[in-house]
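call fold(seq) -> tokens
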Amino acid sequence: MALSTEESGRLAALLSGQDERVTTRWTEIVTSSLRGRLSQAELRRQVQDLHHAIVITGEQGTIDLSADIAAELRAALSELSRGRARQGFSATETTISVFALKDVLAELMQEAGGPDALKDYVAFSKLIDEMGLFTFESFVRTRESLIADQAEQLLELSTPVVKLWEGVVAVPLVGTLDSARAQVVMERLLQTLVDTGSPYAIIDITGVPAVDTQVAQHILKTVVAARLMGADCIISGIRPQIAQTIVALGIEFGDIATKASLADALRHVLRLNGVETARRQPRRDA
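ret:
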């Protein structure tokens, strides 16, 4: 929806003629919808930015959100959407901040009157609807981007590679191992092997609830990739239930060493390096 040059000029004149009243009233209406979740100073700044962008665009000619002349207005709407998305507001709360301008215009135009008041209000309302839709779409894009970034960060946090001993690193896996996470595991493990020069890597699956053919394939690919880097892998955390599942599925780990616990795997690697280890004897009461 684009306003004509005359309509754009009348909208700019209406809003610029009473700057303080418009921003104050606009802020009051939006405040009630946000229930105090945003400071008055911040909210007023956002309203002033939108108000200024609308006036500037209207004074330059036809207001059309898709036109180059409306770049500043689109930027103000996008900034509002990004800020609200990062602050945890909903899409509805964000678009209401734009739609609130309709109430302000209705009050101003009712007072001003004039033969074209109703026609102008309808045109202005359609423009505000388009601004609200633009804001909603910008909000959704920002929220999707935030979710994607957070998902990536969670993947990295859920796949730590830790150094257990000189020359020994471990990857303690917790939760389901899908293709995306398996790729992250492989990349982080290989990078750590390069950074530390470790000849041994322990892949601990104690926290993996179940091992099926797909999970086993992911683990085997990681082991093969590590071997290409010159590191031997040991798989630990093979609980009885998982061992039975592996046998039932006919999964073969070949010559890959497997241990029941991370401690057993570390002890195995230390023995390979000639380090003497001793199992702690169970305490006996006197």
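Strands lie at 162-165, 168-174, 200-207, 232-236, 257-259.
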